[in-house]
Design goal:
This is Chlorophyll synthase. InterPro entries: Prenyltransferase_related, UbiA_prenyltransferase, UbiA_sf. One of its GO terms (biological process) is menaquinone biosynthetic process. It is found in: Membrane. Its main location: membrane. This protein is mainly alpha-helical and about 300 residues long. It folds into two domains: about 1-175, Tetracycline Repressor, domain 2, CATH 1.10.357.140; about 200-300, no CATH class. It contains eleven helices and no strands. The chain has helices spanning about 5-20, 25-40, 50-80, 95-115, 120-135, 145-165, 175-195, 200-205, 210-240, 250-265, 270-295. Helix 2 runs antiparallel to helix 3 (about 50-80) and helix 3 (about 50-80) packs antiparallel against helix 4. The longest helix has about 30 residues, at about 210-240.
Length: about 300
């Protein structure tokens, strides 16, 4: 009885720390494209029950796997950044402990995915491999301008959609054009988040794309990708590919509005709070056309 209390307390703190490392605020970044693939494959709002396994895999497990390994290898630099306050910088979890958590979460994610379908395990492995490539030496693409964006956005734009599709069926008939446009969105939403870290990354010796090309060009890359998404999807709606053709009358007016909102909210944002404010405004309103697409695709609208 004398040891049960402290043991439960340490266990509870460990669970909370691992949850914090997994960054729950990021779960939707992977779960939304995962659900898109799930929806496209099943053509229903709620498809096979295997989707519940996907929620666990593409939510907490993959994020714990890639972020714990990232935090472990970033620890020396994070200790120099006053904005970093994590279980590792606070000393509650060691570098070795973070690596154990990362490999354990990765193994469980792949095992659960394989239990659903080998193709889902392949998509999960691709996502995790990109996370390792991004964070772990000697590759550590995080420190290679351009490749940092590639290794961050390809898993979120492509492997997540593949994972959602594979939850329902094999890759035959997989809509690669959808993965391509989701990739454009991921780049558009990721690049602004690099801007506030330019000074701290430079001080820590990280040569990210934003450090290399500067804040203005980093924003412009995101803007071009955001514009490209709206142009391509409007064309898809016009020809009735993936989109119901009637949706072009809704989608086409949305395009210039959302392009303007992205520019208005992010063109001059440099501080974390300004970036967050601009992205939150765009992201919340972006849910409206997304919801219309989902309801149109399954036949509720149109």
């Amino acid at each position: 009885m004398t040891t049960a209390g402290p043991l439960l307390g340490r266990t509870r703190q460990l669970v909370l720390d691992l949850w914090e490392i997994s960054r729950p605020g990021l779960f939707l970044v992977s779960l939304v494209p995962y659900y898109l693939g799930y929806l496209l494959a099943g053509e229903k709002l709620i498809g096979p029950a295997t989707g519940l396994i996907g929620l666990v895999v593409w939510g907490p497990l993959v994020w714990l796997a890639v972020l714990a390994i990232n935090d472990a290898y970033d620890l020396p630099g994070d200790l120099l950044n006053p904005r970093k306050n994590t279980p590792l910088t606070a000393g509650r979890i060691t570098e070795r402990g973070a690596k154990i958590a990362a490999y354990s979460a990765a193994a469980l994610a792949i095992a659960l995915s394989f239990a659903v379908r080998p193709e889902m395990a392949l998509a999960t492995f691709g996502f995790l491999a990109c996370g390792w490539i991004y964070s772990v030496p000697p590759l550590k693409w995080k420190n290679r301008p351009g490749l940092d964006v590639v290794s961050n956005c390809i898993p979120l734009g492509i492997f997540t959609v593949m994972g959602g599709w594979a939850t329902v069926k094999s890759f035959e008939g997989f809509p690669w054009v959808v993965a391509g446009v989701v990739l454009l969105v991921e780049i558009a939403l990721y690049t602004p988040t690099m801007i506030p870290d330019i000074d701290s990354d430079r001080a820590s010796g990280y040569t990210t794309m934003a450090v290399k090309i500067g804040a203005r060009r980093t924003y412009l890359l995101g803007f071009v990708c955001w514009t490209g998404f709206w142009v391509v999807t409007t064309v898809l709606a016009a020809i009735g590919h993936v989109f119901p053709q009637w949706m072009v009358w809704f989608w086409a007016p949305c395009a210039p509005l959302f392009i303007w909102m992205y520019h208005h909210g992010l063109a001059h944002a440099r501080e974390p709070k300004d970036i967050a404010k601009g992205m939150l405004r765009v992201g919340k309103l972006f849910l409206i056309p997304c919801a219309v697409f989902v309801l149109g695709y399954v036949g509720v609208l149109g």
